[in-house]
């Protein structure tokens, strides 16, 4: 693994009920795989699957590249630059509606809950989500956490009309919050929390309300691929998912090994910090009650429909895709193999 840097089931293009046998190690299929961002702790599931030969055992030669944001990854997979991507499924609602010929499908829902959150510091005086009413709220314009905030505000009972938004580049968001230039921000909890710690903010002074834990219970990042690629390569898709599930199990059991695997791919990787980021990701977005009850990757179509509806409202999508056009469990191994926690 180098680090160089429609519905499948519902639009008349159904796949065979039985997937072909996985290729032997002697006939490994090349897979171009793009992450959502630079290496972070949760990516250890893929690094371990490579380092311990799980991808190779499943007949895959995987090249994994860092990403530059979920939206960018989705576009690159849709364009054919990559076969498979790891991206926030919310980015797919608007994209699929506008590009039905390049439609993306979630084939393994890794993060059972979105990491989007409302985040502030104790000094702001904001002690619960409703207290953000009338305050200065910051986020990059057009970013998912900001676009979904109105939906979160409705379910959380926040009076949003008096909120004053400040736009900034993503790399300035946490600094502006730490400096008091805004009262609170929206963003990915796992990213903003540890960025604030890196800026010298004490952990006990950081307050956060994840959307998914406060009324807007929608999915987060997933392994995705283009529908036509899946039709041509069902065995490769199933093999990649199977190996990823095994990688996740290894990461859950051996987090230090996961961080070490990532360090081997990126010498500047901060193992101690990323192990803590991984623990937060695990506890808040992976080992959820739904996953404990139904196994990793299980999709509740009601929650999937909620995700599509709130994103369609946020981005003005008048003809959003159906849940069955965006999510499939066809490539998952049996639930007994996906039990975690």
TrEMBL record:
<keyword id="KW-0784">Thiamine biosynthesis</keyword>
<keyword id="KW-0808">Transferase</keyword>
<comment type="similarity">
    <text>Belongs to the NMT1/THI5 family.</text>
</comment>
<comment type="subunit">
    <text>Homodimer.</text>
</comment>
<keyword id="KW-0479">Metal-binding</keyword>
<dbReference type="InterPro" id="IPR027939">
    <property type="entry name" value="NMT1/THI5"/>
</dbReference>
<comment type="function">
    <text>Responsible for the formation of the pyrimidine heterocycle in the thiamine biosynthesis pathway. Catalyzes the formation of hydroxymethylpyrimidine phosphate (HMP-P) from histidine and pyridoxal phosphate (PLP). The protein uses PLP and the active site histidine to form HMP-P, generating an inactive enzyme. The enzyme can only undergo a single turnover, which suggests it is a suicide enzyme.</text>
</comment>
<dbReference type="InterPro" id="IPR015168">
    <property type="entry name" value="SsuA/THI5"/>
</dbReference>
<protein>
    <recommendedName>
        <fullName>Thiamine pyrimidine synthase</fullName>
    </recommendedName>
</protein>
<keyword id="KW-0663">Pyridoxal phosphate</keyword>
<feature type="domain" description="SsuA/THI5-like">
    <location>
        <begin position="41"/>
        <end position="257"/>
    </location>
</feature>
<keyword id="KW-0408">Iron</keyword>
<dbReference type="InterPro" id="IPR006311">
    <property type="entry name" value="TAT_signal"/>
</dbReference>
<dbReference type="Pfam" id="PF09084">
    <property type="entry name" value="NMT1"/>
</dbReference>
<comment type="pathway">
    <text>Cofactor biosynthesis; thiamine diphosphate biosynthesis.</text>
</comment>
């Amino acid at each position: 693994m180098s680090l160089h840097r429609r519905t499948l089931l519902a639009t008349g293009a159904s796949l065979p009920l039985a997937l072909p046998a996985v290729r032997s190690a002697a006939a490994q299929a090349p897979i171009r795989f793009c992450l959502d961002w630079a290496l972070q702790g949760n990516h250890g599931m893929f690094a371990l699957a490579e380092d311990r030969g799980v991808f190779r055992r499943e007949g895959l030669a995987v090249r994994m590249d860092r990403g530059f944001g979920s939206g960018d990854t989705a576009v690159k997979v849709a364009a054919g630059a990559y076969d498979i991507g790891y991206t926030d499924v919310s980015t797919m609602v608007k994209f699929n509606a506008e590009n039905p010929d390049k439609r993306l499908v979630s084939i393994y829902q890794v993060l059972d809950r979105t990491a989007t959150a409302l985040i502030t510091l104790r000094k702001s005086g904001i002690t619960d989500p409703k207290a953000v009413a009338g305050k200065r709220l910051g986020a990059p314009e057009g970013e998912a956490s900001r676009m979904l905030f109105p939906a979160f505000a409705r379910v959380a009972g926040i009076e949003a009309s008096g909120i004053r938004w400040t736009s900034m580049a993503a790399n300035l968001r946490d600094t502006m919050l730490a400096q008091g230039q805004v009262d609170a921000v929206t963003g990915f909890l796992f990213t903003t929390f540890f960025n604030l710690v890196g800026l010298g903010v004490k952990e006990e002074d950081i307050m956060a309300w994840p959307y998914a834990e406060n009324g807007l219970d929608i999915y987060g990042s997933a392994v995705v691929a283009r529908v036509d690629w899946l039709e041509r390569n069902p065995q490769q898709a199933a093999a990649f998912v199977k190996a990823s599930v095994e990688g996740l199990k290894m990461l859950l059991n051996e987090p230090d090994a996961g961080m070490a695997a990532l360090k081997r791919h990126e010498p500047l990787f901060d193992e101690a910090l990323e192990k803590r980021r991984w623990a937060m990701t695990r506890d808040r977005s992976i080992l959820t009650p739904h996953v404990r009850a139904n196994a990793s990757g299980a999709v509740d179509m009601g929650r999937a429909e909620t995700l599509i509806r709130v994103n369609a409202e946020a981005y003005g999508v008048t003809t959003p895709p159906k849940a069955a056009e965006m999510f499939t469990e066809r490539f998952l191994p049996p639930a007994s193999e996906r039990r975690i926690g």
